[in-house]
Amino acid sequence: MADLPSLRETLDAHGLLAKKSFGQHFLLDLNVTRKIVRLAGPFEGRAVIEVGPGPGGLTRALLESDAGAVVLVEKDARFVPLLSELDDGSGRLTIVEGDALKVREAELVEGPTHLVSNLPYNVGTPLLIKWLTGPWTPHALTLMFQKEVADRVAAPVGSDAYGRLSVIAQAVCEARVVMDLPARAFTPPPKVASAVVHLVPRVDRPDTATLKRLEQMTAAAFGQRRKMLRSSLKPLGGAVLCEAAGVDPDARAETVDVAGFLRLARAG
């Protein structure tokens, strides 16, 4: 990795610029990408999937780390030749050209696998929901989002940022913001700051049926967050459901903790 040209030189050599339609903002500072990888590890030889590697800043740091197989999922075909230059022929690096929302991760890797990505802004939340509620469970996730989204993921009950994404993420994982990044750290600079969230799946992760009902409960409750639960959850059981779950029917969504929403899901 030390013999490679800088990321900026590599982008210039390939004549590549970020595409706004893909929500691309590149991290070109290898000190920053190495710090993110340190926060994500140790990997102890486990595989890592990176979504949206772009010019490969995080990829370089991952290849320097104790990760095993490194699988890149890149939708923008322009970057495949550039990323291929990081392949040392050992078979450790795999590049998959495709849409991460449609990829079946279990077909790409075997065994416990980390997800480490600077996610494109326009698909960050849908990808997180896919990984939280889908059939494939990663070993851990270290993901960069817009700071507003990152704060929602890790928000405590009662805070302004607490909402549907907070409940679903924290029902499935332990979640915490581990790093903040200003807009100027990126090329081109986005209009907002970013943050890295580290998520570790819970041992007592809810089953698929409970998660599906949790998605329904949170959609109804936070879709009308100014209303009491007896009203917002009326199509799902209203006051009777709340009482069966041991949740105050007169409470509003932002005051009900994750455990309360899980009780509602299991009572539904």
Care to describe what's here?
This protein has 268 residues and is of the alpha/beta class. It is 36% helix and 18% strand. The chain has 11 helices and 9 strands. It has helices at residues 7-14, 30-40, 57-64, 80-84, 124-133, 147-154, 164-172, 208-223, 229-232, 238-245, 258-267; strands spanning 26-27, 47-51, 70-74, 93-97, 113-118, 140-146, 173-181, 186-187, 194-201. A 7-stranded mixed β-sheet has the order 4-3-2-5-6-9-7, sandwiched between helices. Strands 1-8 form a two-stranded antiparallel sheet. The longest helix is centred in the last third of the chain and has 16 residues, at 208-223. The mean pLDDT is 93.
Q: Which terms would index this structure?
A:
alpha/beta, two-stranded antiparallel ribbon, 268 residues, 36% helix
